C-alpha cells in the first residue's frame, strides 16, 4: 500500500507551515551557485502546492523570504525577488485554475514595487478561489508581527476603544497577519536544522514539529506524505492526559478563524 492510501483523511492537518531550508547547500553540493538552489526550490514549491491541493489541505504557509534574509548579498536578494516575480507571473493562471487562493503575510511595504504589484494581482485574481489557501511569508519576522499587533492594540487602548482587561490571546491572534487562519497543526523544516527561526512563534504553540535532513529542492510529494504519516502517528494532547485524549477529543487546535 502506498503512503497516500495509508493516510487517514479524517486526521489531516488543516494548516501546514514549511520552512524551506537548504537551497544553498543543495546547490553547493552540486558545485552550483546558491541561486540555482532557489530555482530548483521553486519546482518543489509547485509540487508541494499540488500535493496539498490533491490531499485537501486547507492552508499551506511557506517561509519564502524572512526579514533577516535582507542581509544576504545583494545579488542573492535581487535574484530571489526576480524569481518570486517570475514565478508568480508564470503560475497565477494555474493557481486560479486549481482553485488555490493566494495570501501574503509579512512586511509587504518593504518589498520592491514590482513584487507588490505582481503579488497584489495574484491575490486579486485568486480571491474567489475556495480550495487550498497558499500563504507566502515574505519579508516576514514573527517578532515584528507580534510587536505590530501590540502597537495596534495599544492604539485602541489609548483611543479609549478597548480596555486592558479585554486583551487576551484571541484578541492578540486577531491582530496578527494570520488573523482568520487556523493555527498550523504541522510545521515542517527541511535540511536538518531543528529551529523555528522567527517563524510563526505565536501560532506554532501547539504545532507538531517535523524536521527532515532532506534539502528543500529535493523535498517532493513522497516526503510530504511521509511527514503527514508521521504527524498522524503522534498523539496531540494540548496539555491533557493520554486517557482524556482517547475519549474522542478533536485533533485540531483552534486558531482565530473567521
Ligand atoms: C532557504 O534556503 C530558502 C530561502 C531563503 C528562499 C526560499 C525561496 C524559494 C524556495 C523560492 C521562491 C519561493 C516562491 C514561493 C516562489 P537557504 O538559501 O537558506 O539554504 P542554505 O541554508 O543551505 O544556505
Polypeptide structure, described:
This protein is α/β, with parallel strands linked by helices and 258 residues long. It has a domain at 12-141 and 183-232: 3-Layer(aba) Sandwich (Undecaprenyl pyrophosphate synthetase). Helix content is 43%, strand content 13%. It is built from nine helices and six strands; from the N terminus they run H-E-H-H-E-H-E-H-E-H-H-E-E-H-H. It has helices spanning 3-6, 23-29, 34-55, 74-97, 113-125, 142-158, 169-174, 221-232, 242-246; strands at 15-19, 59-66, 101-105, 133-140, 186-189, 208-211. It has a six-stranded parallel β-sheet with strand order 3-4-2-1-5-6, with helices on both faces. Farnesyl diphosphate binds at residues 20-25, 34, 38, 41-42, 45, 62, 64, 69, 83-84, 87, 136, 191, 216.
Amino acid at each position: 500500500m502506498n503512503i497516500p492510501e495509508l493516510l487517514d483523511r479524517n486526521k489531516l492537518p488543516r494548516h501546514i507551515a514549511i520552512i524551506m531550508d537548504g537551497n544553498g547547500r543543495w546547490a553547493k553540493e552540486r558545485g552550483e551557485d546558491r541561486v540555482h538552489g532557489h530555482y530548483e526550490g521553486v519546482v518543489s514549491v509547485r509540487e508541494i502546492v499540488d500535493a496539498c491541493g490533491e490531499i485537501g489541505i486547507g492552508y499551506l504557509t511557506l517561509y519564502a523570504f524572512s526579514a533577516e534574509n535582507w542581509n544576504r548579498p545583494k545579488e542573492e536578494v535581487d535574484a530571489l525577488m526576480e524569481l518570486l516575480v517570475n514565478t508568480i507571473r508564470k503560475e497565477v493562471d494555474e493557481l486560479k485554475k486549481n482553485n488555490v487562493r493566494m495570501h501574503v503575510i509579512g512586511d509587504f511595504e518593504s518589498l520592491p514595487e514590482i513584487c507588490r504589484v505582481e503579488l497584489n494581482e495574484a491575490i486579486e485574481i485568486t480571491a474567489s478561489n475556495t480550495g487550498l489557501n497558499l500563504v507566502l511569508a515574505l519579508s516576514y519576522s514573527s517578532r515584528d508581527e507580534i510587536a505590530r499587533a501590540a502597537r495596534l492594540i495599544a492604539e485602541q487602548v489609548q483611543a479609549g476603544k478597548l480596555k486592558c482587561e479585554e486583551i487576551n490571546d484571541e484578541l492578540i491572534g486577531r491582530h496578527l497577519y494570520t488573523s482568520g487562519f487556523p493555527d498550523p497543526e504541522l510545521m515542517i523544516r527541511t535540511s536538518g536544522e531543528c529551529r523555528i527561526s522567527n517563524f510563526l512563534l505565536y501560532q506554532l504553540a501547539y504545532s507538531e514539529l517535523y524536521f527532515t535532513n532532506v534539502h528543500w529542492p529535493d523535498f517532493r510529494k513522497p516526503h510530504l506524505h511521509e511527514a503527514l504519516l508521521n504527524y498522524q502517528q503522534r498523539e496531540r494532547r494540548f496539555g491533557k492526559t493520554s486517557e482524556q485524549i482517547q475519549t474522542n477529543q478533536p485533533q485540531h487546535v483552534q486558531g482565530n478563524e473567521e
